[in-house]
Each structure stands twice: as C-alpha cells, then as structure tokens.
Amino acid sequence: MIIGIDLGTTNSLVSIWQDGKSTLIENPLGDFVTPSVVGVDDDGRIIVGSPAKDRLLTHPDRTVAIFKRLMGSNASIKIADLVLKPQELSSFILKQLKEDVEAQTGEKVSEAVITVPAYFNDTQRKMTKLAGRLAGLKVERLLNEPTAAALAYGLHEKSDNEILVFDLGGGTFDVSVLEMFDGIMEVRASAGNNRLGGEDFTRAIAQYFTEQLRHDGLISPEGLKKLEPKVMAEAERAKIFLSTNHEYESQLIEGQNQFAISIKRDKFENICESLLGQLQQPILQALNDCSISANQLDHILLVGGGTRMPIISKLVTKMFGAFPNKTLDPDQAIAKGAAIQAALKSHDESIEEIVLTDVCPYTLGIEVVTDTYDSKLVQGVFSPIIERNSTIPTSKVQTYYTVYDNQESINIKVFQGESRNTENNIYLGGVSVNVAQASAGDQSIDVRFSYDTNGLLEVEALVVKTGERKSSLITTGEDELNDEQVSESLKKLQSLKTHPRESIENTSVLYRANRLYEQNIGEKRELVGRLVDYFSGIVESGDDEKIKEVRARVSQELDQYEL
Ligand code: ADP
Ligand code: MG
User: Fold this and answer.
1) Which of 474, 493, 525 delimits the end of a domain?
2) Of 526 and 518, which is predicted with more confidence?
3) What DSSP designation does 298 have?
4) Of 335, 359, 383, which residue constitutes the final position of a domain?
5) Less Cβ around it within 10 Å: N or C end of the chain?
6) Is residue 23 situated within a structural domain?
C-alpha cells in the first residue's frame, strides 16, 4: 500500500486509496488534520500534532512550528536540548501519519506519495524525500500540490480543461495553471511565494492588537514583548472567527491584568490590503507564463485553509469575473489527491490511467561571459537554456563560443534560477570540454539540456569542429544525498524516544488544560486547575475504563474555558 501525504506548513493529513476512493485517516485524537508542530515533552520524548501545538503557548522553548518554510535550508532548530534540521522535524510528522495508517489498517506501510508546493526548488524537494526516508518511508513520488487538488476534484476524469489552482496555506501561496486533455494532466505554469500565507494575515491582526495595547498605554514595552505569543494566539483565533462573524472581541491576560482587544471584519479587510495585493502578482505571472487568459479558464479551485477567509473568494471572483470552486473542504483536497496519485502509482484497477506531466519550476542554464557594447567582458552571467515552466520531459540546445584567444577548454557550469547574475542562482554541477586553441569566438560548442520528470538533467556538450561529445548527468531532483549525513540523522533520530501512542489522548487533554489554565484567570483558572489535578489522578490510577470515561467528560468541560 502506498499512502498519500499532504505535508503542510501548518497542517498535515494522510489519505489512502480504499474501496475505489480516497479515504482520509484519523490521528489518535480522531482528527483528520494533524498540526505540523513538534515538541519535546517533559520526559524528553518527541510529541507531534495538536498536543504539541497546545504547548506552543505554555512551552515555547520546547515546541516548534512552521518549519516547512525552512525546508531545504541549512537551518538548525533548537528545541529543548536538541538541535534539529527541518527535514528531521518533518520526519516526525511523517512517521506519525505512517503509524496512523498502520494503526487503522493493521498493514505495514513503507511507501508514500508526498505533496510539495509546485515551485519548491530541487533542494527543497530533495529534503522532503529525505524526511520521508528518515521516517522509514520510500517516497514513491513527490506530487505538486495543485495537481493533487485537481485530482481530488476529479478533473482528470473530464476533458479539455484549463484549471487554475489557488492555494493559500499557512506559510505558502501557490498558483498553478493546469491543463487536462486526452488523459494527460499537465502543469502549464506555476508561480507563488513561499513566504506568504495565512500566517501573514494572522500577523497583521497581531500587529493591530499590539498597536491597540500600545495605544491604551496600560502596558510597558517589556510587557508587550512577553505577551507576544498570546497576542499571536488571539490573532489566529480572531482571523478564523472573522471568516464567519463580523466582530471579534476578547481579553488578554497577563499576570493580574486584563486587556481588552477587538477587531471588526471591515478593519481586518482593511489592514490586509497589501497582502491581497501580493496575492495578485503570482496569478498574473502564472497566466502570463503559459499565455492563457483568465477567461479561458474552465475551473478555479480554492484550496488551503486561508481560502476560508471571505476576502479571498471575493478577490478571486473579482479578478476572474467568475466564481471559484470550493466544494471540497479546502484543507483536505490535497491529501485526497495524493492518495489518488498513490493508487495510480500502484496501478489500482479501480482508477483509470492518467498521465501527469510536469513543468520544471525554475529556469536551467549555464554561466557565460558576455561582452558589453564597449567590449568589456562581464563574468558570471546566466544564460537560460530551459526556461521555467517548460513542460518536461524536454530537450533544448544552444550554441556558445570561446571568449579568449587560445582558450583550451570550456567549463560548463549549470545553474538553476531566474537571476541574470549566476551568483544568485543555485549551482547544480558542471562538465568541462577541451577545444582546439584558436582565436576568440572561433571555436564553438552546442550545449544540450535534456530534462526528465525524475528531475534528471543530462547536459551534453558537442564540440562543433571535432564532433567530440561529453556529457554529464546532473541529478536535480533525486537523492544524491550525502550518505554520511543521512546515517548521522538516522542515528540521531533513533536515539530519540517518542511519546507513547497509547497515552496521547490523555496527554492531549492535560496539555490543553494547562494551556487553558494560562489563558484564563481568577475563578475560571482555579476550576481548570482542579480539572487538571483530578484528571491527572485518574490517569495515575491506570484504570483504563475509568480514564476513558473521565477523559471524555473533562474534555467536554474544558470547552467552556476556551476563550
Ligand atoms: P498548510 O497547507 O500551510 O499546512 P492549511 O491549508 O492547513 O495550511 O491552512 C492553514 C492556514 O489556514 C492557517 O493560516 C490557518 O489560520 C488558516 N485557516 C484555517 N481555517 C481558517 C478559517 N476558518 N478562516 C481563516 N483562515 C483559516
Ligand atoms: Mg497546504
């Protein structure tokens, strides 16, 4: 069995193909959505999902979120006394989702399709695969999130469709144009911003609240700093509340003090105007890159939790003059699509074969030396060979000439990126060819790039005069991971214990109660405290039947203390 995973910045989900359809799998707490949050509990064990999320507030030093944004970077994240890489943190999430499926189906799981933003670059893709490997999963395929969404909407079963997928998640914004014809689903273009998401809307509200507090003059700058995590938590709640209501009002509690905060929907829409502006540019870019005009689109899909904000459908409707499709739960579409792809991969008979083609998300080219009008040489200039959003597999050739007299060789350095200056692009590898010594510009080589869907780039240089060929295979998407690094990671992760699965429901209630204790004051806080003590006592008794019954009751009682 191959499972389908939406490894999100904010939330992750897992789905399997069962009885001819995509079925989401619940986590131990009975939810489809597992927050992409990792923590270290008081006994030094790894804890994942919503209990970890509850501790973002109570134990900020032992908890970490939004690390997908760092994927592909060299960042080291400190959490309790551990130092972890983004891919290692991601592996904890993947491992839990894998175990959720195993617990539910009783089958061993070792393969997965994992979705990634369409414009994730090669390093980010590579690290996502590594995260899978660290979690004991062979990553059968990385699937672009928008393609997954289109699969979930069943658009692969229709014909001649132009589709635009608008995905606003927690930390990423992704626009893709897909085309479906003759059983082929093709990503025509993708654009986006991996630094823009629902989180930024939360931050805008947090900033507004902070200004409110500062304006009231009741709280010192240090006090404000201390309140930051609480302000963020309030802002998140306000944002979600405003998706279905017109005004949010609440109290912030710090020590013995209470501060009133509030925001109206109009105000919210006002303060996120610049964010809305930033959402438009990638849409225009994607349409422009594939020369499709807005009125040619047959479907506009809204996915990602951020699209639940009414301003987003408003913006999209206004931009396209057509209503977007949001019939599927925007949080679930991608995971559902991933399981459909998993079924395709394993050639499940209940699903008709479709072919997915891809585009290369970034431009591939080589470094050249150019001369200016006044014959000065400029080094380090990028010469594109395969332009971004070209459909792959593809093969392109360009001719280059020697620049120096008596030049003996040409060193081809391959880069990926959009900048004219290679320094700003990502170096992928190279190949060197010898040429006969002659005057500058006399010798030439044809450089051919052949790029396939597995992320393999074949670079071939043909010395035109001699017919001599030299080629090099550059892996841009596949693991050419440093084995030492991998085994080091594996060793580190194996030495860590995870919070036992059986007790996760109890822990989850206790962590939540502790969060509510901090969020409330006075009599309410006192009552929450008593619930904590009572339930801890029951848990210690070890009487499973009783624990289950009390847990349900305590959990329900806690609801009234949620702000
Ligand atoms: P990701 O793909 O990054 O994991 P999701 O698609 O799960 O993210 O979306 C998470 C984002 O959606 C968060 O910023 C969250 O605040 C936002 N979100 C979820 N529900 C709502 C809602 N009802 N209204 C507004 N925003 C929401
Ligand atoms: Mg997402």
Assistant:
1) 474
2) 526
3) S
4) 359
5) C
6) yes
The count of C-alpha atoms lying within 13 angstroms of the C-alpha of 434, restricted to the half-sphere facing its C-beta, is 1
- pLDDT of amino acid 218: 80
Q: What is the pTM of this model?
A: 0.79
Contact 239, 205 (CB under 8 A): yes
Q: Give me the pLDDT at residue 412, please.
A: 94
* d(CA 303, ligand 2 centre) in Å: 8
Find the domain containing 534 and state its range.
501-561
> Do 192 and 315 lie in a common domain?
yes
Residue carrying the six token digits 């060789």:
409
* CB distance 224 to 214 below 8 Å: yes
CB-defined site of ligand 1, < 6 Å: 8-11, 169-172, 197-199, 236, 239-240, 243, 304-306, 308-309, 331
Active-site pick, 41, 54, 167, 234:
167
- d(CA 414, CA 544) in angstroms, rounded, equals 61
Q: Provide the CATH number for the domain around residue 446.
A: 2.60.34.10
* Same-domain check for residues 369 and 450: yes
CATH number at residue 126: 3.30.420.40
Nearest to 49 by CA among 493, 499, 536: 499
Residue 506 has pLDDT above 50, yes or no: yes
Annotation marks residue 68 as catalytic = yes
Give the residue among 195, 193, 357, 387 at the shortest CA–CA distance from 291: 387
**Cα of 8 from ligand 2 centre, angstroms:** 5
Q: Are residues 55 and 173 in the same domain?
A: yes
Ligand 1 pocket, mutate which of 145, 331, 332 (most atoms under 8 A from CB)? 331
Please state, in angstroms and rounded to a whole number, the distance separating the CA atoms of residues 208 and 215: 10
Domain total in the chain: 3
85 and 28: one domain? yes
CA-based torsion, 477, 480, 482, 485: positive or negative: positive
* pLDDT recorded at residue 105: 96
Are both 389 and 354 inside the same structural domain?
A: no
Pair (300, 427) in one structural domain = no
- CA neighbor of 428 nearest in space, from 362, 377, 491, 493: 362
**Maximum Cα–Cα distance for the chain, whole Å?**
90
Quick check: 436 and 402 in contact, CB under 8 A? no
Residue 161, pLDDT score? 87
pLDDT tens per residue, range 357-369 = 667 778 999 999 9
CA gap 218, 234 in Å, rounded: 18
Say whether both 439 and 403 belong to one domain: yes
Q: Is residue 160 part of a domain?
A: yes
Helices (H) and strands (E) in the chain, counts: 14, 27
Helix (H) or strand (E) holding 390: none
| Side-chain-side CA neighbours of residue 312 (13 Å) | 27
What's the 141 CA to ligand 2 centre distance in angstroms?
A: 17
180 and 49 housed in the same domain: yes
Tens of pLDDT, residues 6-44: 999 999 999 999 999 999 999 999 999 999 999 999 999
Give percent of the chain with pLDDT exceeding 70. Answer: 96
Q: Which amino acid is at 525?
A: R
Going by CA atoms, what residue is nearest to atom 18 of ligand 1? 305
Atom of ligand 1 nearest to the CA of 167: 6
